[in-house]
TrEMBL record:
Pfam families: DUF3857 (PF12969), Transglut_core (PF01841). This is DUF3857 domain-containing protein. Residues 251-323 form the Transglutaminase-like domain. It comes from the Bacteria. InterPro entries: DUF3857, Papain-like_cys_pep_sf, Transglutaminase-like. Residues 47-200 form the DUF3857 domain.
Amino acid sequence: MPCKQPWRDFSVPHWLQAASEGLPIKSSLTTPYTTYTTTGPTPAPFHEVVVPISHYGVQKYGQVQKRFSAKMEHVTVVDAYTLSPSGKRYPVSEKKIFTRTLPVAQNAPEFSDAKTTTMVFPHVAVGDELVADWKIDFLKPYFPNAISLSHGVPYFLQADNVHIIVHAPTSMALHWAGSDGYAVTRTVAKGVQTITATLHQPIAQPIQINAVDFHQVSPTFILSTFPNWQAIGDAYWKYAEPAEAVTPEIKALADKITEGKTGEAAVQALYDWTVHHIRWVGVETGLSGYKPYPAAKTLSQRYGDCKAAAALLVALLHAKGTPPNRYC
């Protein structure tokens, strides 16, 4: 399961503002301890400390948000408070912790179960510590008998001390990697393996404007039961293959679209029909973020997301006996 990060929505306009007003955060301490068993992860507690070091940091991080899928996860705030340099503690009132449905994209109404829990910190000023203890209850896995975790720290933020600690039975085959400063160790005791990833990033790098997405060049730790990309593809295929079933309606439509056409012309006709007749609507509730809708359903309702449209196109190709990858 992916770890949530307070800077996930740090978009280009925010880069520009931070570049003019100063880096937003001096340090962050994140210590998620996650225990995985053969039935899945147990509730994962997090301890997080963020210190704003500019006016922009106060504005941006005075409210901390944790986004989650309501059908797959549940977020609980255990404790949250502002700690001033003098040692005075200002607790976040329960009335200032909100869990609400996120506003979804205009073209995806009612097709997302994304929610956010927001903590509004009081008395926030430059140099204060914003402390939050929270946990995630994982309701069910996205892929059966498989887990994945990733955590990154943007290169333009200072990170005094980041720890990620994962406990799992030694019988669970885990694969991991750390980049750009992450040090990873593994210990074993009494049938339990402990993987610890540690990052010290005391010096933030200058923000690169008009560069590649910062996730691609920032320190990152990943852990998974998937040994390689082929295994990930195989897991997805178990969701995708049933969605590409050919029904009589799909077969009749494929024949009609390709009437008088063969080869690449027929493939192009099927592609053009799908693009012009299936409108895009985000479908991201629960497993729908990974599992495409059946092609027959997409055809009947004339909308779906990218996975759904792709499944319908593949079904149309199958209906004509054309291998989907022949013209890729």
